[in-house]
Amino acid sequence: MTLQASLQKLRAPWVERIARELASGEGVRAGFSEQLVRFYELLEQTVMTGDTAWLDPILYDWGRSPTETNLEEAGYYVSFVVNRMIALTIEVARENLKQKEALVLLTAVIPILTHSLSVVVRYEMETRVAHISNELGKTQEKLQRLDRNKSNFISVAAHELKTPLTLIEGYASMMVDVVQASSQPLMDEYLNGVETGIHRLRHIIDDMIDVSLIDNNLLTLNFQPLWISHLFTLLENEMRKTVTERRQTLDIHSFEGSDLMIYADSERLYQALHNVVSNAIKYTPDKGTITINGRLLPGFVEIVITDTGIGISPEHQATIFEKFEQLGRADLHSSGKTKFKGGGPGLGLPITRGIIEAHGGTIWVESDGYDEVKLNGSTFHILLPSRTEPSDPNMLKFFGEFDADKKDIETEASAKENTPTDKPAA
Ligand code: ADP
Fold first, then answer.
1. Which residue's CA lies nearest to atom 14 of ligand 1?
2. Which residue, judged by its Cα, is nearest atom 11 of ligand 1?
3. Are residues 246 and 380 in the same domain?
C-alpha cells in the first residue's frame, strides 16, 4: 500500500479516536471532529508536498484560540492536544495498518506533527504574553488611579484637619493664659500635654500637605543664597537639648563646600537635613554618635550624615524613600519625635527626597544592615548641585550684579550652569 493510501485509510479511525479521547460532550466533539478533518487533510497535503506551510493557518487559529478562562487558568490546552495527538497517531497507526506500512507512515507524519507542536506552542505563548501584558496595562492603570486617589485624599484630609486644629490651638493658648493667671499647677501640666499633641498633629498635617505637593509636582522652591554651614549651626542649636538628653554626640565638621555660597531654598533644605538628622538621632541608641561631614565635588556638594545606630536592612534601604512605607509597622509608631526607634507615619524621607530632587540633587543611604546589637549604623548621602547662580534671571538683576537684557542673562546663566565654579556670583 502506498503512503497516500495508508494516510487515507487512517483518516476516519484517527479522527474518531482523537475526538473521543480529547473532546468531552457530544456538542464539543462534533465541532472538534470538523477541525480534526481539516487538520488531517492539510497533514496529507504536507506529507505529499513536503511543505509544512499548509498547516500554518490552522495552527495559527488553534494557537490563538484560548479563551479568557483558559488564559486565566494559565494552562497550555492546544499544545497539550497536539502533544497527545502525536501519541494517539502512533497507536492508531499500529492498530489499523500493517507494521511496515505503519512505520512508513509514522516516519513521514511524526516530524510534521512535532513541527506542528512547536508552532502551536509558539502561537499559544504569544497569545498568553499578549494577554498578560494587557492585564498588566489594566493593573497599572488601576494602580495609577489608586495613587491619584490616595494623593487627593491626603491633600483633602490635610486641609480639612488644618481648620479644626487651628481652632483648638487658639482655644488652648487662651486656656494657657487663663490657667497661668489662676496659677493651678496641675492644669499647667495638662495643657502642656495638649500643646504637645497639637504640635505633633500640626507637624503630621504639614508633612501630609508637603507629600501631596511633591506628588503633584507643586513644590515651589525659593532659591536664595545660602551657606550650608549656617544650616548646620541652626541644626546644632535645635538638636542640642535632645542630643544632651540622649547623651549622644553630634559631631559637625566643616568641609570644602560647607562654606561655599550656593543658591537653594534654605527653609526646605533645612527641613530635609532636619529630617535626616532627627532620624539619625531617633534610630541611634543613647550615647551614640551622629557625624555630619561632606566634600566638594565637580558641580556638587555632598553632605554625609553618619550614625552609629541600628542600621537599615538592604530590602528596607530600597523602600524607605517611598511614602507611608512605615505605616505597616504600627509597633514602631510613637508620639516621641526623638525617642529611640520612635517611628512616625513614614513621610519624613519621602519629603526629604522630594526636596532634594526638586533642587536637582539626589539622596541615598548605605548601611551594613539592621542589627540592634552590632549597631551597624547608617550613612545618608545628599548630593546637591553647587548652584552658584540663581536660576531666576530676575534675581540676578535683584542682586545688582548684571544689567544685561534678559536674553543675555539667560544665555550666560545656562552656560555657567553647565560649568559651575566655586566662586560666588553675587
Ligand atoms: P518615620 O516617620 O518613620 O521616621 P521616615 O520617612 O523619616 O519616617 O523614615 C522611614 C524609615 O526609615 C524609618 O521608620 C526607619 O525605619 C528608617 N530609617 C530612617 N533613618 C534611619 C536611620 N538613620 N537609621 C535606621 N533606620 C532609619
1. 343
2. 320
3. yes
